[in-house]
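Quick one:
INPUT:
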């Protein structure tokens, strides 16, 4: 699939058909982590693939999904046959940037005003989302909040030095009429490009 055709098809899907995904498809999706950009080639991204029904239910309960299903919403996490938990290991970045070729002029590790271990995790998540579409699947994503993190650590044995950042849901799409009526995609228009992209300087106009 050409990228220009793939990108418009990417959207957040929150309801899936009860069809298991072949292992080889999941492997193709998650192997993209090796091609994800990472600062200094630190390669601090980590992925955990979850297909176990009991674990998916525990994650769904942690985000209060059963209560939402009782209110008429689709079973987002419970219906997804596979989850990919996107994680990052901050120490990989410090280890890399304490090596001689990355030290600043004073021989110190650079300051990190932007924590690139989180930025790179987002880049890895986007590759998972786009590759899912390329495989003919649908995907959704939600962030890991404080209440969910200990559940992920307990059920997935995530080490203390690895931080779960986001969860990607994967599967074949099912109808989502309830979500379509209330989701941000339906209630908020896309911002015009002029609000999102600036040329040469903030608020500047593109020279023609």
């Amino acid at each position: 699939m050409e990228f220009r055709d793939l990108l418009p098809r990417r959207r957040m899907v929150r309801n899936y058909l009860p069809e298991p995904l072949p292992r080889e498809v999941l492997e193709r999706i998650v192997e993209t982590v090796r091609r994800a950009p990472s600062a200094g080639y630190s390669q601090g991204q980590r992925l955990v693939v979850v297909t176990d029904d009991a674990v998916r239910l525990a994650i769904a309960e942690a985000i209060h999904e059963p209560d939402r299903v009782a209110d008429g919403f689709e079973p987002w996490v419970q219906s997804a046959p596979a989850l990919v938990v996107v994680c990052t290991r901050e120490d990989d970045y410090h280890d890399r940037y304490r090596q001689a070729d990355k030290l600043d002029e004073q021989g110190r590790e650079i300051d990190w005003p932007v924590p690139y271990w989180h930025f790179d995790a987002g880049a890895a998540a986007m590759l998972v989302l786009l590759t899912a579409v390329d495989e003919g699947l649908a995907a959704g994503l939600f962030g890991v909040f404080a209440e969910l993190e200990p559940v992920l650590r307990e059920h997935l044995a995530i080490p203390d030095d690895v931080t779960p950042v986001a969860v990607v849901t994967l599967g074949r799409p099912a109808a989502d009429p309830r979500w379509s009526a209330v989701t941000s995609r339906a209630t908020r228009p896309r911002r015009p490009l002029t609000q999102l992209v600036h040329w040469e300087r903030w608020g500047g106009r593109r020279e023609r």
